Amino acid sequence: MNKILMIICSIMLITPGYVFAAIVDTQMQQVKSDFKQIDTDKSGFIAPAEIQTYQEKNFNEADKDKNGIIDKNELNADKSKVFSKADRNKDQKITKPESASQFKQYFDQMDANKDGKVSEEEFTQYWPIIKKF
Ligand SMILES: [Ca+2]
Ligand SMILES: [Ca+2]
Ligand SMILES: [Ca+2]
Q: Which end of the chain is more exposed for a tag (fewer CB within 10 A), N or C?
């Protein structure tokens, strides 16, 4: 976390405050809209099943030819970095189980207080790191 703080500080030094604020604002809006999208029952928390639904939906969208594997071309077309990280063995192919286990890991990372659900606060802290804005 300190590293990130340092990066943010150095960005602030070289970027005029108003530009920086605008960037952060846009990112925050994106993160919040992602949260709303994943929290389908609008409970204010993301349940494991909800992140799974999100993962499946995104997987199916990225898997253009519907063969159950996201290959190199599909990966490049898919702009969400959350999928490229799922390719553990770097063979430029992501299978559904690979993707599912990656999202389970994201969930565990985000659930900082380990209560089995991800609050908006937990989400806004980790999602930008996971998505690597
Ligand atoms: Ca929910
Ligand atoms: Ca495919
Ligand atoms: Ca939690």
A: N
Contact 107, 115 (CB under 8 A): no
Q: How far is the CA of 3 from the centre of ligand 1 (A)?
A: 31
Q: Do the Cβ atoms of 45 and 118 come closer than 8 Å?
A: yes
Q: Distance between CA atoms of 54 and 86, rounded to whole angstroms? A: 15
pLDDT digits (tens, 9 = 90+) for 55-100: 999 999 999 999 999 998 888 777 666 777 777 777 888 999 999 9
| Helix, coil or strand: residue 47 | coil
Please say whether the beta carbons of 58 and 130 come within 8 A: no
For the whole model, what pTM was predicted? 0.74
Ordered structural domains, the chain, with CATH: 47-133 (1.10.238)
105 alpha carbon to ligand 2 midpoint, in Å?
Answer: 23
CB within 8 Å of 97: residues ≥ 6 apart: none
Q: Name the H helices within 15-92.
A: 17-38, 48-62, 72-77, 81-84
- Helix 120-131 × helix 96-110 angle, to 10°: 130
